[in-house]
Amino acid sequence: MMRLGTGLVLAAAMAACTPAGPGVGSKIEAQAPVAAATQAAVMHEGFMILDSHLDTPEHFHHPEFAFSNRGSFEADGTQVDIPRMKEGGLDGGFFVIYTDQGELTAEGYAAARNSAVLRQMAIREVAAKNSDEVELAFSAGDAERITATGKRVMFQSIENSYPLGLDVSLLETFYIGGVRMVGPVHFRNNQFADSSTDEEVVFDGLSPLGEDLVREANRLGMILDGSHASDSTVWDMLALSTTPLILSHSGPRAIYDHPRNLPDDLLLAVAEAGGVIQINAYSGYLELLEPSEERVGGIAEIEAEFGDDFEAMDAETQVKVRAAYAELAEHHPAPRSSFATFLDHLLYALDLVGPEHVGMGADWDGGGGVIGMEDVSYLPRVTEALLTAGYSEDDLANIWSGNMMRLMRAAEAARTSDASSPASVN
Ligand SMILES: [Zn+2]
Questions:
Q1: What is the whole-number distance in angstroms between the Cα of residue 185 and the centre of ligand 1?
Q2: Quick check: pTM over 0.90?
Q3: Ligand 1 centroid, distance to 311 Cα (angstroms)
Q4: 186 C-alpha vs ligand 1 centroid, how far in Å?
Q5: Alpha carbon distances (Å) from 415 to 53, 66, 242, 318, 419
Q6: Distance in angstroms (rounded) separating the CA atoms of residues 369 and 401
Q7: Which of 102, 179, 303, 315 is the most exposed place for a label (fewest CB within 10 A)?
Q8: Do 255 and 345 contact (CB within 8 A), yes or no?
């Protein structure tokens, strides 16, 4: 399969030009796309490119995974590592502390808290082990300083605040360790908020504890993330937060009507308040895709054996179910969307809210990636497509990281937490 690293963008453009013929006129014409592709590749290298939702820490505890080794999506399913970040020009982003959700009980919270703390330790360990290539970032200024040295930037975020239990002050512990972005909820409703993908309406937005969480995030200087939250939760966050919201990996519902995507009025309101939507590349939220009969049969078999409520399973069963799904995916993978459809979402959002309110959070290593953009090495394709669509170099600088760093700075400026606490531990 052809890889589209920066050099290969040029190669692809040249290949496209070969049938141009020997005439002088056609030679001149044939050079235009080559020049455009070269310009895109050079420009791409110059941007600070950050993704707002990297699920790569999911792999950090696997003994065979090394962040410094080049993996392959086709061979091992991974999408982000230092070599591929370099190939694709990805300078870094928010590495996610994600926690599966169990029961909303003291035992459930305690187990989740431990798992989230370990995940944060794993991120810090990977940063320490690869300190010649990457560095933990705690502020927008850090990101600039680190990229200037040629290293990759590792911010941290929390996806699903379930591990905080009933004690929002625990958020400060994660802040001290480096977390700078927090989303209250994941697939199911929890103690803080209603989820976009839970059928029940419990709070119709944030719970009173969820409101405390928003206030605590503002106090600490963290960006609030509305991805996975129900529409009413995002409206509540918008009303309460003193700083602009991010939707770290979401899409426009006008392109595909899925609860994980957001309606135009809500996207406009988030943008109006200074916020940003970071476009997801998760196939299931990009378009309706029908799995093969074999895959449907395979899923039915797994569910017959283990049930269909993953988050209610004990840890041991979850491991077995993950393995069963991985095995199924090898023979009958889930259908995937295309680069063209991803672009439909991106261009629609850009048109709706403007280039100062859009970025990219592709859900790499969390199910993201489409045919034609399988891993982060393909990112130059996005720059090329946006230039072709008429966006300027300044627009692209904002889309690739400027917008998100504007939010980071707003969160930092709004921080009212005691200045003596270790705000900057770099
Ligand atoms: Zn997610």
A1: 10
A2: no
A3: 14
A4: 7
A5: 23, 35, 10, 39, 9
A6: 19
A7: 315
A8: yes
pLDDT, one tens digit for every residue, the chain (426 residues): 333 333 333 333 333 333 333 333 444 445 566 677 788 999 999 999 999 999 999 999 888 899 999 999 999 999 999 999 999 999 999 999 999 999 999 999 999 999 999 999 999 999 999 999 999 999 999 999 999 999 999 999 999 999 999 999 999 999 999 999 999 999 999 999 999 999 999 999 999 999 999 999 999 999 999 999 999 999 999 999 999 999 999 999 999 999 999 999 999 999 999 999 999 999 999 999 999 999 999 999 999 999 988 878 888 998 899 899 989 988 998 899 999 999 999 999 999 999 999 999 999 999 999 999 999 999 999 999 999 999 999 999 999 999 999 999 999 999 998 754 444 444
User: How close is the Cα of 132 to the center of ligand 1, in Å?
Assistant: 30
Separation in Å, CA 302 to CA 100, 187, 263, 295, 319: 19, 20, 34, 11, 13
The candidate with the shortest Cα–Cα distance to 44, out of 384, 410, 330, 418, is 384
Block residue for tokens 């005691």: 418
Cβ(88)–Cβ(378) below 8 Å: yes
One-letter amino acid for residue 417 of the chain: S
Q: Where are the alpha helices (DSSP H) in 243-388?
A: 264-272, 283-286, 293-306, 315-331, 339-353, 380-388
CATH assignment of 49-289+337-414, among 2.60.220.30, 3.20.20.140, 3.20.20.100, 3.30.1330.10: 3.20.20.140
Extents of the domains making up the chain: 1-20+27-46, 49-289+337-414, 292-335
d(CA 249, ligand 1 centre) in Å:
7
